[in-house]
Amino acid sequence: MFVKRLMIEEDLKAAFTIRKQVFVEEQSVPLEEEFDQFDTLHGLCEHILVHYNEQPVGTGRIRVVDGVGKLERICLLKPFRKFGLGKVIINALEEIAAEKGVLQVKLHGQTQAEGFYKKLGYQTSSPIFMEDGIPHILMVKELSTREISQSEIGSLRS
């Protein structure tokens, strides 16, 4: 298992394939709602891929909005959701936030994943709202200044 920051179009296409499978096909998010102006390399977002047995199986992105890291498009292919890889994605995105000097992160979490995010230190800070036809909540976390260990997230590769 390893985490990779996306630097080439081939990797971005792999992330898009995962997002399409999870959000569009599995969760019925309209295709035109899933992809946006932030889905480029070297833009306002940093994208990551998680590989398991050399296969890309999960992805996420982070962008800084008003000094806060916004974690977005976090997903894993269904067969790989039992291996703790969601935590790997979150930790990698938090590490990128810390590298950028960001001390707070937030995300729009699906309500069914609220417990998962709470275990990772996130606090619910909104009532339920609908996004792409799915109930969500705003969750926030203050990052400590400690370094996230490489053993916790695997090796980030450029």
How would you characterize the overall build of this protein?
- By secondary structure, the protein is of the alpha+beta class.
- It has a single domain, classed as Gcn5-related N-acetyltransferase (GNAT) (Aminopeptidase, 3-Layer(aba) Sandwich).
- Strands 1, 2, 3, 4, 5, 6, 7, 8 and 9 form a 9-stranded mixed beta sheet that branches.
- The two termini are 15 Å apart.
What's the topology here?
Layout (H helix, E strand, L loop, with lengths): L1 E4 L3 H18 L4 H4 L10 E8 L2 E11 L2 E9 L8 H15 L4 E7 L3 H6 L3 E2 L4 E3 L2 E9 L7 H4 L2 E2 L1
Parallel strand pairs: 1-9, 4-5
Antiparallel strand pairs: 1-2, 2-3, 3-4, 5-8, 6-8, 7-8
Q: State the domain count.
A: 1
Outline type: globular
Number of helical regions: 5
Strand content: 25-35%
The chain-level mean pLDDT equals 90
- Tell me roughly what share of residues is in helical segments: 25-40%
CATH topology, by name, is Aminopeptidase
- Total strand count, please? 9
Note the gap between the termini: 15 Å
Largest sheet: 9 strands, mixed
Round the Cα radius of gyration to an integer and report it: 15 Å
Instruction: Output the structural class.
Output: alpha+beta
Could you provide a short overview of the structure?
The chain has about 160 residues and is of the alpha+beta class. The chain has helices at about 10-25, 30-35, 85-100, 115-120, 150-155, and strands at about 1-5, 45-50, 55-65, 70-75, 105-110, 125, 130, 135-140, 155.
